[in-house]
Automatic annotation (TrEMBL):
Source species of the chain: Sphingomonas mucosissima
Membrane spanning residue stretches: none
Gene assigned in the entry: greB_1
Domain Transcription elongation factor GreA/GreB N-terminal: 5-75
Role played: Necessary for efficient RNA polymerase transcription elongation past template-encoded arresting sites. The arresting sites in DNA have the property of trapping a certain fraction of elongating RNA polymerases that pass through, resulting in locked ternary complexes. Cleavage of the nascent transcript by cleavage factors such as GreA or GreB allows the resumption of elongation from the new 3'terminus. GreB releases sequences of up to 9 nucleotides in length.
One example of a Gene Ontology biological process annotation: regulation of DNA-templated transcription elongation
Pfam name, any one: GreA_GreB
Keywords on record: DNA-binding, Elongation factor, Protein biosynthesis, Transcription, Transcription regulation
Family stated for the protein in its record: Belongs to the GreA/GreB family. GreB subfamily.
Name of protein: Transcription elongation factor GreB
Organism domain of life: Bacteria
Length: 160
């Protein structure tokens, strides 16, 4: 990994929760089902066995991915931001485009990004453009639909 995997404490807890749920609940139940299906005889046409093995591979891949992401994670608490006048990781910002359409966004780790909820990944083009900005700054962003210019209206951080 060439850049740090910044993540909020809540995002890390969500990754950990998914890992624990897969490892402690789903995987053991699936192994039990596969063992039962294998004991039924012919495995070539045994749907429970075939599906179970496929699902087990998916779970193992996801567990490996989550393990690597958690190992590389650098948990950053946005409430501890030393300079609250600039946009840094975890900032909640309000921006306005050329048509005066306002958007409220929170800069979070790439693993917890959800554009529909206003959570944009730290390495997204818009987040990269906003890094270090102060209220009133204009930032030009190249998006898939073309270039857009945004004005930073407000910056807030979670309370400590």
């Amino acid at each position: 990994m060439d850049r740090p995997n910044y993540i909020t404490p809540a995002g890390y807890a969500a990754l950990r929760s998914e890992y624990d749920q897969l490892f402690a609940t789903e995987r053991p139940a699936l192994v039990e089902t596969i063992a039962w299906a294998a004991g039924n005889g012919d495995r070539s046409e045994n749907g429970d066995y075939i599906y179970g093995r496929k699902r087990l591979r998916e779970i193992d891949r996801r567990l490996g991915f989550l393990s690597r992401r958690m190992k590389a994670a650098k948990v950053v608490d946005p409430a501890q931001a030393p300079d609250r006048t600039r946009v840094y990781f975890g900032a909640c910002v309000t921006i306005a485009d050329e048509d005066d359409n306002h958007r409220h966004l929170t800069l979070v780790g790439d693993d917890e990004a959800d554009a529909g909820k206003g959570l944009i990944g730290w390495n997204a083009p818009l987040a990269r453009a906003l890094r270090g900005a102060t209220v009133g700054d204009l930032r030009r962003v190249t998006l898939p639909v073309g270039e857009k210019e945004y004005e930073l209206i407000e910056i807030t951080y979670p309370a400590a």
